[in-house]
Task: inverse folding
């Protein structure tokens, strides 16, 4: 059983979550953190990374819209933050170009993330396995076993808890494993839902010291929010209404309902 009560602790303590964000999804990432109960800080100037690491409770590094300065900021932020707080790495589209993969591997050499949140194609790229990516999206289709084996290999190589997201999420720290079911097919119609899951990993990691459990809680929370958002749609509504309903679900979901609706399986 997951420690669903951490949602109450999140809302009580309102931890400061620092995000070096994907420009495409920065606004939604900040808003979903507010909705869930955390306090977002969206900053990426290399000059202030040390000071921000000193006051934040968790850090999320997203490489979705990279340039040289962003990778510099990520290296500095990760180095400072990993000394005293969980760091979540979201290697968006890491297999899209050789440069992006090389720079992300430099990040992994310079600090150890607590959680890596990614899709199957991105995990295969980091493992230098043959994968399928279309820009920042994964087109790979694989069985649950193949996906868990890939996530477990990355967890053992990196030392991080790995959340490999998809129609069903798999989470592992290399020893333990979990699958999270549910969600909504509408998630694929709204940009940045994976980025939002990554910042939720940071929010739960700020209140749950076990990174495997923190990532599992974030996954379960987001799957429940997606299912609730889909159920709130009325005929004729589409992706825009679903995106709005996601925020409503994140802000309204209470611990009891969270525990009742979450669908988690220990492996």
Result:
């Amino acid at each position: 059983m997951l420690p669903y009560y951490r949602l109450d602790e999140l809302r009580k303590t309102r931890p400061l979550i620092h995000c070096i964000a994907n420009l495409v999804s920065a606004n939604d990432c900040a808003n979903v953190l507010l909705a869930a109960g955390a306090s977002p800080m969206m900053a990426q100037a290399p000059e202030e990374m040390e000071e921000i690491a000193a006051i934040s409770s968790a850090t999320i590094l997203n490489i979705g819209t990279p340039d040289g300065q962003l990778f510099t900021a990520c290296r500095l932020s990760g180095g400072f933050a990993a000394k005293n707080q969980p760091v979540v790495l979201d290697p968006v589209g890491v297999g899209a170009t050789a440069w992006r993969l090389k720079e992300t591997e430099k990040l992994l050499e310079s600090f150890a993330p607590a959680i890596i949140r990614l899709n199957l194609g991105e995990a295969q790229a980091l493992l230098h396995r043959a994968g399928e990516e279309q820009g920042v999206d994964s087109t790979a289709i694989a069985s649950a076993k193949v996906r868990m084996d890939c996530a477990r290999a990355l967890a053992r190589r990196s030392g991080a808890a790995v959340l490999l997201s998809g129609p069903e999420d798999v989470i592992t720290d290399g020893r333990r494993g979990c699958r999270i079911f549910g969600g909504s097919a509408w998630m694929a119609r709204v940009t940045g839902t994976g980025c939002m899951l990554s910042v939720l990993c940071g929010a739960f990691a700020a209140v749950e010291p076990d990174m495997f459990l923190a990532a599992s809680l974030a996954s379960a929370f987001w799957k429940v929010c997606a299912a609730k958002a889909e159920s709130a749609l009325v005929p004729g509504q589409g992706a825009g209404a679903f995106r709005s309903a996601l925020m409503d679900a994140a802000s309204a979901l209470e611990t009891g309902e969270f525990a009742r609706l979450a669908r988690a399986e220990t492996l």
